[in-house]
Each structure stands twice: as C-alpha cells, then as structure tokens.
Amino acid sequence: MLPEKILAWGKTRSCIRELAEYGARRKAEIGAENVYDFSLGNPSVPVPECVDEAVAEILKDSSDKPHAYTTAAGLLSLRKRIAEDVNGRFGLDIDPERIYVTCGAAAGLTISLKAVLEPGEEVVVIAPFFPEYRVFTEASGGVLKVVPAAEDFKVDIEAFKAAVSEKTRAVIINSPNNPSGAVLSDNDLGSMADILREAEERYDRTIYLISDEPYREIVYDGRSITSPLSIYADSIMCYSFSKSLSIPGERIGYIAVNSRMKDAGEVYAAIMGAGRALGYVNPPSLFQRVIEKCIGVTADISEYELNRKTLTEGLKSIGYEYVEPEGAFYLFLKALEPDAKAFSERAKKHELLLVPSDDFGCTGYVRVSYCVAGKTIEDSMPAFKALFNEYSK
Ligand code: PLP
Q1: Atom of ligand 1 nearest to the CA of 129
Q2: What SS3 class is residue 16?
C-alpha cells in the first residue's frame, strides 16, 4: 500500500496544470496565436540583462567554483546582501544568520511549515488562496483552516478573529495575492497582528505569521508595501525571485526569520532541520551567485500595469464584474454562472483559458493571469464578448 494522500496529490492535478496542458495541446492543433491562454503565472516580461551578464561573468571567473556545494543556508555573502536589501527597503533588522536561501517561495513555505507545525495544528489561510498551501500544510501534518475573504478579497477581520483558536500554530498571508491581486492595507495587517498577539497571550502559545511574498514588487498606482515583519514579531518572510526577475524555473528565493521573534534562534534551527529533511543540500549554487550580483534589480514589471489596464477596461466595457487588482498579475473575474468549472468549460469553446476558482478555496470566479503579451489581451476581447453574449441570450 502506498501512502494514500501522497498518491492522491500525484494523481490529481490542479485545475491550473490541467488547463495549461490542455492549452499546450490546443496551441499545437490551431496555432498559439488562436488560443488566449490566461492559465499560468509564468512571468511574461524579459529577464533583466543583469541576470545573463551575471551568469556569463560568474562562469568566466576561474577562481570561483560556481557549481560546487554551498553551505545549506546559502552563501553568507548572498545572505548579507539580502539582509541589506530588505532591511533598507522595509525598515527591518534581519540578521543574515537568520536567512535561509531556498528553491523559491514554494520550498520556503514547505520548510517554514515543517519547522513550526506539530501534527493536527491549524494553519489559517484567507480564501481565495494559492492552492499549494493545502498540500504544503498537510504534508507537515497540519490542518488548513480556511477563512473566506471580505467582498474586496481583503481580510474579513471578524471572520479571521473567529478562526484563530487554541489549535492555531500559523497563519499564511499573501499580499499582493494570487489569485485576487488584493493588497492588505496597513490597517488590515495591524488588526490581524493585534488578534494574533491577543491569541498568543490567551492560549499561551506562539502563533507564527508566515508572509508569502513572491509578488511584493508588483504593485500598482504607486502603492508601497509595508512588511508584516515590521508589525508582528513572530513572523517569517518567504520570498522568491521568480516573479520579480522573471526566473521561476531557476528555483531561488529565501526565508527570513524576524529578528524580533522571541525564539528566533530555535525557529531558525528548526528551519535548518526542515530544509535538511527535504533532501536538497543547498539551492542552486550558480543562481545564488547571480542573485548576489542582481539584488535590488527587478524586471520591467510596468508592462503588467499596462496589461491590467487593457484587460480591465476591455472586460468592463463588455459588462464583466471584478474587483480591481492592486498588485500581482491576476484578475479574479466573476463567472457568469455560479459553477466556475462549467463557466471555464464554456470559455474553452471560445479558446479562452480561465482557471476556475474552486482550487483557490471559493466558488463563482475564474482567475485570469495577465502575464501575457499585450496583444493576446487585445485579441481575446471578441472571444470574451462572444462568451458574455451567450449568457445574455
Ligand atoms: N506563493 C504564491 C502565492 C505563488 O503564486 C507562487 C507561484 O506562483 C508561489 C508561492 C511559489 O513560488 P515559486 O515558484 O517561486 O516557488
């Protein structure tokens, strides 16, 4: 007998994967330009020059050994650069010795959850949420506690308060959010922190706030982001360079444990243990060196703001409903019927690939990833209109 849950995760693909694979087949059949593929969160803007230049430079330097093992936590020189960068930008005091370089935010989350969870403890998430949170939590023996968001997809403070209990060990927040594009306000963060501090005292236990931040640079209308680590001491940052540098396949990111956390040393040790248990010695050594050279650089993410405008204005003029995304590169569009899967199937008939919201923990929406060429968005509008008209008959 194989472990049931592991087997199920392997056999059931997420709606996102299924749709992306369907899209690949369909593009081969009718040509890529005839399929409006809004399924994946694969960055569409070019990798900044700095990345390729760094790769060339590192490979030319015969004094270095770019393909050798590094320390498990990542090169100290890189961790120092990361600490300088986040401390300077967010007013934090992260210690390089509390940074653990990972294979992206996904590994950062997996490791952090494994480090803090005992079997049966609860992890609170706000729906809609990144579907892998469930797998990462359950793989560490935890139980996902889902709290529906407010109407604007931000946190419903009363519902959040009611969900935090003596079983809560962690809360995952993701701002800007995949799939809604919502950005938590300083007020939201402050209220959540108050609730968690109160619960820590009441239940005499630590509750960790895990901040999943792969989209933190992608914010619109001149917004700035406050780091949750500046608001709540028992917090852990999980970052990834996948989206800010358009390098998701290179698998590089980091965990930063808040220096103000009372048991930061112990938590960091547990993170080292959890990382060790994953079985990879260190994250990619070549890209650790690349990031060291490119820290603080971002790809030209202004294109996503332009895409947001084209998409939202086009859909609004047709009659679709949505909440304006404030960051990331996703639009959470209200489906034209209650069953999002059925709506997504009907959209496919118009060559529109839209991910149904069920896997994100709520019903009645589809996710439209607008990290695509601007022309794809423009060309897709007649298809969106035809789909809309089907429901208006
Ligand atoms: N968290 C969220 C909200 C994401 O959208 C993603 C990827 O799309 C991840 C984590 C994983 O990021 P990475 O691929 O860099 O590990």
Answers
A1: 3
A2: helix
Phi, psi of 71 (to 5 degrees): -65, 155
Mean pLDDT of 62-78: 93
Residue 109 alpha carbon, nearest atom of ligand 1: 10
3-state secondary structure of 254: strand
Q: How far is the CA of 6 from the centre of ligand 1 (A)?
A: 20
Q: How confident is the model at residue 309 (pLDDT cuts 50, 70, 90)?
A: very high
Mean pLDDT of 164-180: 98
Q: How many CB atoms within 10 Å of residue 124?
A: 23
User: What is the set of domains in the chain, with CATH numbers?
Assistant: 4-47+300-392 (3.90.1150.10), 50-294 (3.40.640.10)
Q: Give the Å distance between the CA of 243 and the centre of ligand 1.
A: 8
Does pLDDT of 244 surpass 90? yes
| Distance in Å, CA 382 to ligand 1 centroid | 31
Of 194, 171, 84, the C-alpha closest to 121 is: 171
Taking 80 as the threshold, does the pLDDT of residue 33 lie above it?
yes
Instruction: From 368, 18, 44, select the one nearest 181 (Cα to Cα).
Output: 368
- Cα gap 255→102, rounded to integer Å: 7
CA 201 – CA 216 distance, rounded (Å): 30
Q: What is the pLDDT of residue 260?
A: 96
Q: Which residues contact 35 (CB under 8 A, 6 or more apart)?
A: 23, 26, 27, 351, 353
